[in-house]
Design a protein that fits this description.
The protein is of the alpha/beta class and 351 residues long. The chain has 14 helices and twelve strands. The chain is elongated. It folds into two domains: 155 residues, Rossmann fold, CATH 3.40.50.2000; 178 residues, Glycogen Phosphorylase B (Rossmann fold). β8, α8 and β9 form a beta-alpha-beta unit. The longest helix is centred in the last third of the chain and has 18 residues. Helix content is 40%, strand content 15%.
């Protein structure tokens, strides 16, 4: 376990959620990279062993001052903002409070109240920034471009993972209406009927309230005679996800709503072009007709047309693929995100 001496910690990144989520994945990817530039530690009920960390219980007994006087507390959820305020005002810890907002809707009264008490606010996109009461610093997410990279032998990797040869079209993430999984399946049906060599891969977890939704999608594929062409795959650990992008010819992000949305840049880093909806930060991630294309959310016929046009025009798909990774390397590396955040932390620690 990568345990850090709390007396030396300059920045604390709380993660108070047990289950895997996009926010959790962001924290776990960022902290090891940020630790190259500043002494940072994650804390929470479940932190992977490789992530620099301090025990959750040590927050109560940690020294009031950090090595620079205050410490930075970087929250990403309401409960974490509340935790930072409690440590600062009830237990007297010297903290500079930071909150990252990815939401693209009007915040609740509680959230707005909490945000007003932060020392700094980060928005993950300009669209998110527009929903905040006061302008924030925009720092877009990045990914580990070494872990997310094209396969050296895609055919061999497909064979290793037990996947068919042909055109593989993927849609990954939580299986629920908000994520547009049904839009993906519906859009894919005419594509698969017209393109015998194509397959759809759906990967992710359906939580209990969404299991019937998932089963309806499987039944829909079966009713079209496509049970062997729309493959529903179990969720895999975060560290294995890159392989499942590498095998794809095209990635589809059909969300109806999204805060930021990392999956398109994960796919593009692996050299896989993207068809995405105009939600979250997708318009800032996908370059129209260079790394993929964008459609309006919930326009299933247009989504289907976009996927069909991509998979039936090999030259376009190959060009998009060739452009995808250089675009991510130039604009969305995790090192860029980490460095921008560390610069913010240092400004707060200096004041």
């Amino acid at each position: 376990m990568s345990r850090v001496d709390i007396r030396k910690v300059q920045v604390i990144a709380p993660n108070f959620k047990r289950r895997l989520s996009g926010v959790t994945a962001t924290v776990m990817r960022l902290v090891p990279v940020q630790s190259r530039e500043i002494t940072i530690a994650a804390t929470g009920p479940v932190i992977p062993p490789h992530v620099p960390q301090i025990p959750l219980g040590s927050l109560i007994t940690m020294p009031r001052n950090g090595p620079d006087g205050p410490r930075v507390w970087h929250a990403r959820r309401n409960v974490e903002m509340i935790g930072g305020l409690a440590l600062k005002y009830l237990l007297g810890k010297r903290l500079k409070l930071v909150f990252t907002s990815a939401s693209q809707r009007k915040q609740s009264g509680l959230t707005r109240w909490l945000i007003r008490r932060m020392d700094a606010v980060v928005a993950t996109s300009e669209r998110t920034n527009a929903y905040l009461e006061n302008p924030a610093q925009v720092i877009m997410h990045g990914i580990d471009t070494e872990s997310y990279a094209p396969a050296s032998d895609r055919a061999a990797l497909r064979s290793q993972l037990g996947l068919p040869e042909g055109l593989l079209i993927g849609c990954y993430g939580r299986i629920r209406a908000q994520k547009g999984t049904d839009a993906f399946v519906e859009a894919l049906i005419p594509v698969l009927h017209a393109t015998p060599q194509a397959y759809g891969l759906v990967m992710g977890r359906a939580t209990d309230p969404h299991r019937a939704y998932e089963q309806n999608l499987k039944d829909r594929a079966a009713a079209e005679g496509l049970s062997d062409r729309v493959l529903f795959l179990p969720e895999v650990p975060v560290e294995d996800m890159a392989d499942w992008y590498r095998v794809l010819d095209l990635y589809v992000a059909p969300q109806r709503w999204e805060g930021f949305g990392l999956t398109p840049i994960e796919a593009m880093a692996c050299g896989v072009p993207v068809v995405a909806t105009r939600v979250g930060a997708f318009e800032a991630l996908v370059v129209e007709d260079k790394t993929g294309t964008l459609v309006d959310p919930d326009d299933i016929p247009l989504l289907s047309e976009a996927v069909m046009a991509a998979v039936t025009t090999p030259d376009r798909l190959n060009t998009w693929s060739a452009n995808s990774r250089p675009h991510i390397l130039a604009h969305f590396s995790i090192e860029r995100e980490a460095t921008s955040l560390v610069a913010l932390y240092r400004r707060l620690l200096a004041n």
